[in-house]
Amino acid sequence: MCAAGKCCVCVCVFHQVWLLSVLEAVKVSPLIERVSDHKDFKKLLRTRTNVLVLYTKTATSGDSQLKLLSDVAQTVKGQGTIAWVNCGDAEGRKLCKKVKVDPSSKSGGSMVAFLKDPSGPPLWEENPEAKDVVHIETEKDFRKLLKREERPVLMMFYAPWCGVCKRMQPVFQQAATETKGKYVLAGMNVHPAEFDGLKQEFNVKGYPTFCYFEKGKFLHHYENYGATAKDIADWMKNPQPPQPKTPEVPWSETDSAVFHLTDESFDSFLEEHPAALVMFYAPWCGHCKKMKPEYDEAAEILNKGADSPGVLAAVDATIHKSAGERFKISGFPTVKYFEKGEEKYTLPQLRSKDKIIEFMHNPQAPPPPEQSWEEKPSSVSHLGSEDFREALKKKKHALVMFYAPWCPHCKNAVPHFTTAAELFKEDRKIVYAAVDCTKGLNHELCKQEGVEGYPTFNYYNYGKFAEKYNGDRGVSSYIMFIYWN
């Protein structure tokens, strides 16, 4: 089966064999097998388990596309094979004709999608179930649509790798089918840099962003990211701008059993309570918000029990800064155990109600910390507030992972991020970097860079923030994000 239409490549699947076309070939690794004879080609497919075949228009070049795949060939040595067919010479031309491959097509979307997930769904515009969505490819087509269309238009600006976009696309296409004829629901991949002006014009700061137009005029955004097809259809009947968000009530002003401390009350409280667990937090911190319900539930039991082994308290370290500075709080949340007014343990592993209660009944020192990511040899550049700006300003491409050492999602991402960094270690214009937001003054840097949860990935171009990375957290996704920027 060969992909056709607007793909940049013809991708043919022979059981577990992957075929892919590109425009130019570059310096070829010895691990990439050159094939021109049809019999040799069939033998290769028959005898190897996983084969990725690259068809090129000519034998000349020096483009970084095949440089990347030469590195991949080294990585998959023994597990997969990468082969190369030059369709520009006589024998190669015959082979390309036999397998019906045309390496002259021009768009990269299908290749990216295929490399990320060879068995995954087709591009959105190639999905027959999305036939009622108007798929826009260029800014010119976008302007033309707005100029000629009399019906209201709801435009979904998206990126192909965006998880929320993938989740919402079936809902959006169902809504397009249900409202066909009344409204226009359109989709446009605006991730490429050529659409930066468009994104700025319509305040596209993340994916997906929904923009509503009437007679070519932008009116407002649609922000229900948990919508059903019916929700979208109903909203289109009476489109209203997003409602202003209700200000969040401070934790200390809610009906909470937790004792909320201030700089002034901190010491006297510890004198009155010989065993106390204190959570230092920031209101904006995503992990603090996630932990609050668990901490509240534990406090309902521990703070109200007559025979409780200790109490739970909390300090907003962004307001009561003296307490935070005194105990060197550099990341949130930080949980410390105090005994008779003295700090005894810092407990990064306490995040759930059950673990908190279990600890208070039997206070034990936390397990020794593992070797930190920063201490392990890798091609990731570990940066801090003192060298962050200087390190990035000479790099054309920088993907930075802001993390906390205790964060499970960060731990899962580390090996994939590290492997991606290894592939680009020789390229002086590319860096994969990491910032431990719990270390020293880094929490201020992380706050400045818009970090509200861990891990957060930001992409920078010569030191300037370009966009947040919200893609999959796998090796190929980290690699292809840099490769296509």
Automatic annotation (TrEMBL):
Residues 114-241, 242-358, 359-485 form the Thioredoxin domain. Gene3D superfamilies: Glutaredoxin. Pfam families: Thioredoxin (PF00085). PROSITE patterns: THIOREDOXIN_1 (PS00194), THIOREDOXIN_2 (PS51352). GO terms for biological process: protein folding. InterPro entries: PDI, PDI_a_PDIR, Thioredoxin-like_sf, Thioredoxin_CS, Thioredoxin_domain. Residues 1-25 form the signal peptide. One of its GO terms (cellular component) is endoplasmic reticulum. Keywords: Signal. The keyword Signal applies. The keyword Signal applies. Residues 360-380 are annotated as: Disordered. One of its GO terms (molecular function) is protein disulfide isomerase activity. It comes from the Eukaryota. Belongs to the protein disulfide isomerase family. This is Protein disulfide isomerase family A, member 5. It comes from Myripristis murdjan (pinecone soldierfish). The lineage of its organism: Eukaryota, Metazoa, Chordata, Craniata, Vertebrata. The gene is PDIA5.
